[in-house]
Amino acid sequence: MINKKVFILLATLILSSALLGQFNIEKFSNPQKYGWTNLQERYDAREDLLKRQKLLQIYEMKKIPVWKNMLHSGIMPGWGQFNTHSYTKGQIFLYVEVVLAGTCYYFFDQSYEKYDLYKSATYIGDIKQYYDDATKYRGYAQGLIAFTGLIWIYNIYDTYISTEEYNAEIWNGVVNEFMNDKIEVSLYPMGFEVRF
Amino acid sequence: MKNIFLLPILMLFVACELSHDNPLDPENSGIPAPSQVSGIIIDRPQSGFVPITWDTVTSADGYYIYRSQSYYGDYILHKEISDPNVTEYHDDKNYIQGNWYYYILSAYKIIDEKKLEGTRSRKVTWD
User: Is residue B22 domain-resident?
Assistant: First the structure.
């Protein structure tokens, strides 16, 4: 039992001496490699690093996730633009899509109405006329559906662009405020506080 | 990304055609509608009726006679003749002496107990 303890102690001593031989304590503790010439500069650098970390956290909290915003626009056209404060664009997308969807519905309704008349018609003239009308209105509706779909996809694409721009502005704003040193940031587990 | 924009355009060309569900539609049944009634002659009213004659329409199972009191008025179904061999009708129904009457004729064919009406004739009256 004692022999075993002595063996472990000896092995530890040998291993430690070998590791200490390779480890350069001067290089590790040399503050010159970061450009610090005195202790105050080291403290300043640490302070600066902490502030930058806080800024990054503020940015992460204030920025809008791109895919989440695109999903919003996918659910309701213009929603993503509203989130990025592009209200006019958001309203245009919303109104255009509502009007197009309404017009689509009208033409489909007309198409079904004419098709019902076609199915119950007994006069050859009515049969041909109602079938042609039903096909015509259905064509209008399908064309508008395609157009509505294009606008809807473009709305999602525009949300991607708007969100990227919005996030870039957020980042620039945070950095500018930091550079002007007019900002005092306090981070809490539930949020943050900014004092000007 | 380009494929996403092409998707709605593809949707446009899908299911564009409506089905011909009407059993009387020649596109569905393959049975053509009866021809337009021709050879219509309407003589001046005599003895309280208007004599109307026309040519036989082959493949017809009967005829419809529409009547109106004005040329551009509503033409109401006035008489149905269910014998395809009859090509004459004396219109004395609600006839008022001195009035003018205008007529449209058409032939019909029975398909699955429903009547498919062929193209209607032009509006005719007596000279």
Answer: no
DSSP-derived letter for residue B124 is B
pLDDT digits (tens, 9 = 90+) for A74-89: 999 999 999 999 999 9
Inter-chain residue contact A153 with B4, CB threshold 8 Å: yes
Closest CA to A67 of A166, A162, A160, A165: A160
B41-78 pLDDT, tens digit each: 999 998 889 999 999 999 999 999 999 999 999 999 99
Q: Tell which residue, A143, A162, A158, A155, has the closest CA to residue A93.
A: A155
Using alpha carbons, select from B17, B111, B15, B22 the residue that is nearest to residue B62. B111
For residue B100, give the CATH number of its domain.
Answer: 2.60.40.10
The helix or strand, by DSSP H or E, that contains position A109, with its residue range, turns out to be helix A87-120
Range 96-115 of A in CB contact (< 8 A) with B:
111, 115
**Residues of chain B contacting residue A121, judged by C-beta atoms under 8 Å apart:** 22, 24
- What is the ipTM score, two decimals? 0.85
> Is 90 exceeded by the pLDDT of residue A48?
no
